[in-house]
Amino acid sequence: MYTKIIMIAAIVLIYCGAQSQSAVLAYGNNSKVGKYLDIRGLRMYYETYGSGEPLLIIHGNGGSIKDFNFQIPFFDDNYKVILADSRAQGKSIDPGDSLTYEMMADDLAALLDALHLDSCYVIGWSDGGINGLLLAMRHPEKVKKLAITGANLWPDSTAIDGYYVRNAINDYNAAAKLAKTPQNIRNLKLLDLLVHQPHITAAQLGNIKCPTLVIGGDHEIILPEHTMLIAQSIPKSYLWILPYSGHATVIYRSDIFNRTVQDFFENPYRKIEGADRGQ
């Protein structure tokens, strides 16, 4: 398969091979901090690191907590970093036969409620960026500031590179013909997200009240003009397109990604207009 599911998994495995085996295995499989929470009909696995202001980090399609080996040790110096395996992914058990981004956003809001957190900073990568947008739309009180990278509003070739659209459709059609084993049902649910979801309009983004940093690579799976549309549609937004970068900004551009997102979190949002545009 050449969908985002397989691509993200391959990127994480290959790139993290440069780290020590123990370091890679700890995040997402840490018995000292890992916990399960029974919420909304699923058994959600989550981990927390560090202390300070709460920061929720959300992984992409078919990913897990392990995807953020480069973010956790950077941000846990100043933040309480909260990560969860999303519904039907990683170690989170979901017996249902359907899956939507809205369900996952509501799951994250329930997790924050269970942790007695009124609000937090949020980072979302890929489908995690979609979940971040929906969390800010559906539970605006939960999000102080939002940084998303590689997110899309709808699933067709006006938003996503045609190569990935075609392969996702082919993979979905092939998966739909397989025996309905638990693993195949899980994979089909994840592919359904890629092929048929999300359904967010640019107008709906106008309801996001928190400052938002919209990020994408200049050679993204998500078309740069679509990333620009997202930024233009959110009232308090910044746009950052990374040069010579693809979809995995959190991995291959992790140093500059982490520093820039931290700077965004630490400084108040500033509307730049009029004469200030000349600065």
Question: Would you give an account of this structure?
Answer:
The chain has 279 residues and is of the alpha/beta class. It has helices at 4-15, 21-26, 72-75, 101-114, 127-138, 162-176, 182-196, 202-205, 224-233, 249-252, 254-266, and strands at 35-39, 42-49, 53-58, 79-84, 120-125, 143-149, 212-217, 237-242. The protein has a single domain, classed as Rossmann fold (3-Layer(aba) Sandwich). Strands 1-2-4-3-5-6-7-8 form an eight-stranded mixed beta sheet, with helices on both faces. Strand 3 (53-58), helix 3 (72-75) and strand 4 form a beta-alpha-beta unit. Helix 4 packs across helix 5 (127-138) and helix 6 runs antiparallel to helix 7 (182-196).
**CA-based gyration radius:** 18 Å
| Number of domain units | 1
How would you describe the oligomerization state of the chains in this entry?
Answer: single chain
The CATH superfamily bears the name Alpha/Beta hydrolase fold, catalytic domain
What are the segments in which pLDDT stays under 50 over at least 5 consecutive residues? Answer: 1-23
- Cα-to-Cα separation, first versus last residue: 46 Å
CATH architecture call: 3-Layer(aba) Sandwich
Q: Can you identify the CATH class?
A: Alpha Beta
CATH topology: the name is Rossmann fold
Average predicted confidence as pLDDT:
92
Q: How many helix segments?
A: 11
Shape designation: globular
Query: How is the main sheet built?
Result: 8 strands, mixed
Total number of beta strands: 8
